[in-house]
Structure to design on (290 residues):
């Protein structure tokens, strides 16, 4: 909804208009620069229209407003306690719902849309990365599956979660058997300018994978769910002790020059940090559209 339309619909004062316009222009995050900024301004002014606006937020916007802690700014204002509580309850109700998938225009005849995803293991001793294409209707569970399969090492044996890169808002989590939490499509976040995410896996070893999604989808004639594009380095084996264990395994490999002969090399040590067979991984990764 355009700023002018919102102002007219809510009958804002000149002072409110000036404050909203200034706040709106200063925001860089599209998710919070519209309804969320306006909601904060209305609450600050004690306007009853805040309740109407809160009820009209999308579920994602309501979650963002609550997760950002904006409501804390108003808790100390005893004069508006009733208004605040009603608005907070309305946002909470919206946050607990799920928005329907956004309907996007169909791709040109004979072509299919894909988002290019780059997944890089954070803090690794050497660059460990996979790049792949996901169909434009891919979900967070699809992203989880793609990272697991592209790693060619992890076995879905632990809990996982996906959070937004900057706000750390939880987008999805699961135990390997399925997704929990918000199960929307990745494109829903890309549409509002969110392209940086963190995939967390195994909360004991605490693996963190930085995920970047291209801003615009690519068009291909090939009709698939996902396609591996490139990669570098070997993802660490399961239960090797996190980044510290990965460093130790890497040092062990470098010191032995890749020679695993001898009793001092147990089975778990036999890991080449540079090994990445693109053709083999791609054969197990690419999926046709069913």
């Amino acid at each position: 909804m355009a700023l002018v339309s919102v102002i007219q619909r809510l009958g804002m004062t000149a002072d409110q208009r000036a404050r909203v316009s200034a706040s709106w222009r200063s925001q860089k995050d599209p998710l919070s620069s519209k309804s969320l900024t306006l909601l904060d301004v209305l609450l600050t002014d004690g306007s009853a229209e805040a309740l109407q606006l809160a009820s009209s937020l999308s579920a994602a916007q309501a979650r963002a407003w609550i997760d950002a802690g904006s409501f804390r700014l108003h808790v100390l204002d005893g004069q508006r306690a009733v208004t605040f509580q009603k608005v907070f309850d309305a946002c909470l109700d919206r946050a607990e719902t799920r928005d329907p998938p956004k309907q996007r225009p169909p791709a040109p005849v004979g072509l299919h849309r894909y988002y290019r995803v780059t997944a890089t293991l954070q803090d690794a001793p050497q660059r460990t990365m996979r790049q792949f294409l996901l169909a434009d209707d891919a979900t967070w569970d699809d992203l989880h599956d793609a990272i697991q399969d592209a790693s060619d090492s992890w076995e879905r044996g632990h809990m996982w979660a996906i959070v937004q890169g900057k706000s750390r808002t939880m987008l999805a989590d699961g135990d390997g058997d399925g997704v929990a939490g918000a199960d929307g499509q990745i494109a829903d976040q890309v549409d509002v300018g969110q392209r940086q995410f963190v995939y967390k896996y195994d909360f004991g070893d605490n693996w963190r994978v930085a995920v970047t999604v291209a801003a615009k989808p690519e068009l291909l004639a090939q009709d698939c769910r996902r396609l591996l594009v490139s990669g570098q380095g070997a993802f660490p084996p399961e239960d090797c002790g996190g980044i510290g264990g990965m460093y130790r395994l890497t040092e062990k490999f470098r010191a032995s020059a890749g020679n695993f002969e001898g009793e001092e090399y147990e089975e778990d040590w036999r890991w080449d940090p540079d090994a990445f067979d693109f053709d083999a991984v791609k054969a197990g990764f690419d999926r046709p559209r069913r």
About this structure: The longest helix spans residues 81-95. The two ends are 37 Å apart (CA to CA). The longest strand covers residues 112-121. Residues 112-233+277-288 form a domain with the Structural Genomics Hypothetical 15.5 Kd Protein In mrcA-pckA Intergenic Region; Chain A fold (CATH 3.10.290.30).
